[in-house]
């Protein structure tokens, strides 16, 4: 969702980045069944985004216990970075050989939850850009549905793909094929939000869907990173988007709201907008009051407090930059699904603040609370590391060669 994904979320590690998530997956995967039939559409509509490969993934089990959340929107399925028409996680990890995300899904299901999988997002190469037609694009996504026994899927159509008319036609065509071939599949389509509801490319996408006779469960907009200022600007955009849906498809207002969704960003957005818990409550009241179909946000990886709280005026992929308790924003998704979050969630485990011994390293030791910018060097785990861009609380070596830290070798 917007620039943050391209900078902080676009590169995936070959293994799960967080030890807590890995341990959760390992302990739960054995014997877990992939029964995804228990959840209602309301839960899939309320599933917040979670990157299982990047941005210090939180423990889904801890979130479920603390909030009552049952559904997660796992992101993102892309084309291989080297090209081709086969699905991968984040462009680097082939779905065909995946075991890590599969274990996480099994663990979530073992606790009574389920997942939707999101395709696309901001940055990276999308399958609609590399596959030759709608049928081959759908076949690639069908591999994901079949492997993980999915009951829900999200088409996140935004820059730069949604500026490619042919690619969007293939994505919409693929969505229609998947909808037809997988009865009951919950399909959401997410795109950029503007004060007018959505921009020119978003409106062209809607016209493409109309021309192909495709109607998903909802069309969701992301009203952030576009000059928005709190909830009132977001509800205004949702009202205007409702009018766009009416004029495009010939629906009345109630029918349009029943096919409309909200996808927000918790805390500080990429462009410096701030969305608090109170803003989320206001938008939630609007969504439920107008009987909208979806309420989600980017992301659970960010649903925890930064240190310092304002993160020195920076946007992070791993914390929100607003004062909060862990998983505060997830509770609004739980409410949208029709459940009541626990009033006294169990305590969460703080991230480690120490590092392994560094031997004779001369660079300053890495600190989880320090802010680093491009070119800064630290010592960690007996190696010297150099920052490629701004970072905080991302330990060197946890996100692989595509992460923020470049390994300069042993000290």
Structure characterization notes:
With 411 residues, the protein is of the alpha/beta class. It has 13 helices and 17 strands. Strands 1, 2, 3, 4, 5, 6, 7, 8, 9 and 12 form a ten-stranded mixed beta sheet that branches. Helix 10 (231-249) runs parallel beside helix 12 and helix 12 (277-289) packs parallel to helix 13. The chain starts with a helix and ends with a strand. Residues 6-36 and 345-358 have low confidence and may be disordered.
User: How far is it from the N-terminal to the C-terminal residue, by CA?
Assistant: 38 Å
How many strand segments? 17
Beta-strand content bin = 15-25%
Biggest beta sheet attributes: 10 strands, mixed
Mean pLDDT: 87
Provide the helix percentage.
25-40%
Task: List low-confidence stretches.
Answer: 6-36, 345-358
Shape, principal axes of CA atoms? globular
Q: How many DSSP helices? A: 13
Order of helices and strands: HHHEHEEEHEHHEHEHEHHEEEHEHEEEEE
The value of Rg in angstroms is 20 Å
Secondary structure category: alpha/beta
List its salient traits.
alpha/beta; single chain; three-stranded antiparallel β-sheet; 411 residues; 18% strand
Give the helices and strands, then pairings.
Layout: H1 3-9, H2 19-29, H3 41-45, E1 49-50, H4 60-67, E2 71-78, E3 88-89, E4 93-94, H5 100-110, E5 114-120, H6 127-130, H7 134-148, E6 152-156, H8 165-181, E7 186-192, H9 200-212, E8 218-222, H10 231-249, H11 253-258, E9 260-265, E10 267-268, E11 274-275, H12 277-289, E12 294-298, H13 330-337, E13 371-372, E14 377-380, E15 383-387, E16 391-392, E17 405-410
Parallel strand pairs: 1-2, 2-5, 5-6, 6-7, 7-8, 8-9, 9-12
Antiparallel strand pairs: 2-3, 3-4, 10-11, 13-16, 14-15, 15-17
């Amino acid at each position: 969702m917007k620039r943050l994904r391209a900078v902080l979320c676009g590169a995936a590690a070959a293994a799960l980045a967080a030890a807590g998530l890995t341990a959760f997956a390992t302990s739960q995967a054995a014997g877990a069944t992939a029964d995804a039939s228990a959840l209602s559409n309301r839960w899939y509509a309320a599933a917040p985004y979670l990157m299982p490969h990047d941005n210090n993934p939180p423990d889904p089990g801890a979130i479920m216990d603390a909030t009552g959340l049952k559904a997660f929107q796992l992101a993102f399925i892309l084309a291989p970075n080297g090209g081709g028409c086969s699905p991968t996680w984040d462009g680097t990890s082939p779905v065909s050989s995946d075991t890590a995300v599969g274990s996480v899904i099994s663990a979530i299901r073992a606790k009574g939850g389920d997942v939707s999988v999101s395709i696309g997002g901001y940055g990276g190469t999308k399958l609609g850009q590399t596959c030759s037609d709608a049928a081959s694009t759908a076949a690639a996504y069908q591999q994901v549905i079949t492997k993980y026994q999915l009951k829900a899927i999200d088409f996140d159509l935004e820059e730069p793909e949604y500026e490619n008319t042919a690619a969007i036609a293939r994505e919409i065509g693929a969505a229609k094929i998947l909808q037809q071939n997988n009865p009951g599949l919950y399909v959401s389509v997410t795109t950029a939000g503007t004060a007018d509801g959505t921009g020119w490319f978003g409106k062209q996408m809607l016209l493409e869907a109309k021309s192909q006779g495709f109607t998903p469960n909802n069309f969701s907009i992301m009203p952030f990173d576009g000059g928005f200022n709190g909830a009132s600007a977001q509800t205004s955009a949702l009202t205007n988007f409702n009018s766009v849906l009416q004029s495009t498809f010939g629906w009345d207002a109630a029918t349009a709201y029943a096919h409309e969704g909200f996808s927000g960003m918790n805390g500080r957005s990429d462009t410096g907008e701030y969305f608090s818990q109170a803003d989320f409550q206001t938008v939630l009241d609007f969504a439920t009051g107008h009987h909208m179909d979806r309420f989600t946000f980017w992301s659970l990886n960010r649903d925890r407090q930064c240190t310092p709280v304002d993160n020195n005026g920076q946007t992070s992929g791993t914390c929100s930059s607003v004062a909060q308790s862990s998983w505060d924003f997830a509770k609004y998704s739980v409410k949208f699904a029709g459940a009541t979050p626990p009033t006294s969630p169990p305590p969460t485990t703080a991230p480690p603040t120490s590092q392994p011994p560094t031997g004779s390293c001369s660079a300053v030791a890495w600190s989880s609370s320090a802010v680093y910018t491009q070119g800064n060097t630290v010592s960690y785990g007996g190696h010297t590391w150099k920052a490629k861009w701004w970072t905080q609380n991302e330990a060197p070596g946890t996100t692989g060669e595509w992460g923020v830290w470049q390994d300069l070798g042993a000290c």
